[in-house]
Amino acid sequence: MALKLDSKIPAGALADKWSNHKAAIKVVSPANKRKLDIIIVGTGLGGASAAASLGEMGYNVKVFCIQDSPRRAHSIAAQGGINAAKNYQNDNDSVYRLFYDTIKGGDYRAREANVYRLAEVSNLIIDQCVAQGVPFAREYGGLLANRSFGGAQVSRTFYARGQTGQQLLLGAYAALNKEIAAGSVKSYPRHEMLDIVVEDGEAKGIIARNLVTGEIERHGAHAVVIATGGYGNVFFLSTNAMGSNGSAAFQCYRKGAGFANPCFTQIHPTCIPIHGTQQSKLTLMSESLRNDGRIWVPKKMEDVEAIRKGTKKPSDIAEEDRDYYLERRYPAFGNLVPRDVASRAAKERCDAGYGVNETGLAVFLDFKTAIERLGEDIIKQRYGNLFDMYEEITDVSPYKEPMQIFPAVHYTMGGIWVDYNLMTTIPGLYAIGEANFSDHGANRLGASALMQGLADGYFVLPYTIGDYLSKKIQAPKVSTDTPAFAEAEKAVKEKIEKLFSINGKQSVDDIHKRLGNIMWNNVGMARTKESLEKAIKEIQALRKEFWTDVKVVGTANSFNVELEKALRLVDYLELGELMARDALNREESCGGHFRSEHQTEEGEALRHDDEFAYAAVWEYKGMDKEPELTKEPLDYEFTHRAQRNYKD
Amino acid sequence: MNFKLKIWRQKDAKSQGAFETYEVKNISADTSFLEMLDILNNDLVHAGKEPVAFDHDCREGICGMCSLHINGHAHGPAQAVTTCQMYMRKFKDGSTITIEPWRSAAFPVIKDLVVNRGAYDEILQAGGFVSVRTNSVPDGNAIPIPKKDADESMDAAACVGCGACAATCKNGSAMLFVAARVSSLAKLPQGRVEGARRAKAMVAKMDELGFGNCTNTGACQAECPKQISIAHIARLNREFLAAKLQD
Fold this sequence. Notes:
By secondary structure, chain A is α+β, with helices and mostly antiparallel strands. Chain A has helices at 17-24, 30-33, 45-57, 95-105, 112-131, 164-182, 247-254, 301-309, 325-329, 339-351, 368-374, 376-394, 449-469, 483-502, 508-522, 529-549, 561-585, 609-612; strands at residues 37-41, 60-64, 82-83, 157-158, 185-188, 191-199, 202-210, 216-220, 223-226, 259-260, 265-271, 294-298, 322-323, 363-366, 403-412, 415-416, 429-431, 614-619, 628-633.
């Protein structure tokens, strides 16, 4: 049975849709809110802001996170900024322009209505965060400062030094703390959701593991919100935090929620290159650096070789011998093209042999021109902490020599399918932030992840969830003493026992690294029919190997990191295959999804709107069974879908 | 590079802990400290032994999850970085490295090097917020804030809540942590309204949770990975005294 997809996009003019919708959906009275329970899984920008807002409104909220405190969620690592259409810089920005840049940046694979709403509420986010005491950067006149980010020709990015995600999360976390203190929200740190419980076709709660004691717990609620971020760690090496994982989302998929566009992965262009085989994490260098940094490789192969050998320093290369390839190829946007474009251009130069380190997988990001123009002090003010971090890791000072950078897995635009209310295909189950698929199409613009997380959590979900909960005002407390909860708990316990019983020869990390290699080599920056078919076969074989040869040490009833990692890898081993299948199905290139067979003469992504202007939504059919595809057509009523152009 | 590691092992909160010695070999100088522990742990798993539990997450020095006393220093010998941002080139080849959990009564050990820092959450829940509801706020530019104040607020807000200050302090005081939050909000008009209540509530909660008193030794500032200045403690004291005088 194929999934029934009703996007519930309201009728009317683009600018009126959200207002009309808000007027049409039901609300819950204060007296009834007190009777309703909501579970939120994840405490990043989406989860924390949703929990705080719903708690303020009077619902009973339980919020879960795997870290020791809600403040540690990976939103905290976002460096550069958050977009909003305030037009404070008077550069002719507007809600429409932010909408248009976002939909174009996503290569026309997102819903118009969702993206417009995102742009519309973006301004409220800035007001909210300022009122919470977020110390945004300011001008001498005391007003808020802005900078530029990729894919935009205006300055609409608000920031707090290189720590914007941290400051926004601390704002949301403080709001959450306020509600915890007030008793409307109960926090469960060091808890991991291991299953979603569905009863009578509706989400009724979760099974969670207390990561300290190992105890398996049942938690019931009238609605469940997944705010657990993305699944980039399927690649083993990524810029995601070590604990970031796709498991909560994947359990929803297993229980019947549609999973949309899993192959849309963002490869971020400015990360510190891989240095060896002992690495477990890649470090991002903020996109904001492209405001002042210029990306280049040498024009001459002999210079490349000399740099690799160490006989020449990058600063020895004369200006006329440098190929500022982004400025050459994309004069209108220059170094500030969107991430997918910048990443592919770096790959193109490295594939042609111009990579500047021993592995041949690095390009330069150079601040020489900016330091000459603005002086070292100003550059230090703008990027000091990033420069220090770079030097700490590489032992090279970016004030003297250019940074070396290379693309790395960073964000997943794909995720759980949701309708306009952010509800999944399972009634009562919601997904917000990076965990859903809805707003970024095939490529997310810089400084838009923070915007989406907070938009969903502060301004969208708190209203839309009321429409569903208004039907539950007479429902009693959800009992966890039911067959559905018992069954879910039993399945979780059996899975854990099974993992311990294998007692094979390979560690969880050994297998995860191999999965990462398969993914990066075949489902990475460039994909082909052959590479994807190969990946599917190899992942299936690796999955068999996992279930017969993994070694999980320790016990179930204790603090056990190996078990946590094993449970997440179980899901990566299926998610990886799903990503490859989706990429194989999508016989076009768009945004971060580049099928080498489908490119323009100039090597740009070539979409096929006639065949693929849809969100690919997959339904789980079993571990070794092919999932079923349902298409949600993306009708473009208001924007003309053009070949993306960042040249003029 | 090769190292001998003396690591604190403790089964759970109730058990007695002890140091155990391990060796790691062929570590690249570019490997991070936690990657070095990953390598040790992978070896331990292959040998059928339980790996060393330690807290970590972002590995970019911002989430505040990683901890560790390394050779007696919170976040190790390097200045101004968290443990995850420290690279093995900082250590002498062949040396012995001692690794312990945070040493603070208010942060009990959960397992090995993992401690419970829930007390910091509780302190913030006592008043480390501005009481505004979602959507009940003025325009972001309605109240200009002098750049200097916003910058100072940001200096304090850089605190990652890792616990190094209290773990380092000979009195086990959390003053730098409390001061960072109080001071960050004290520099902004949005935080002023509740300033007096906040300072009193957070200090009271800190005392209640068993943190010690501040005697201005400055050890917290020296070990803080984000270089939060003890000038913020002075501001906290000022806020606190002013609030008490109003009573």
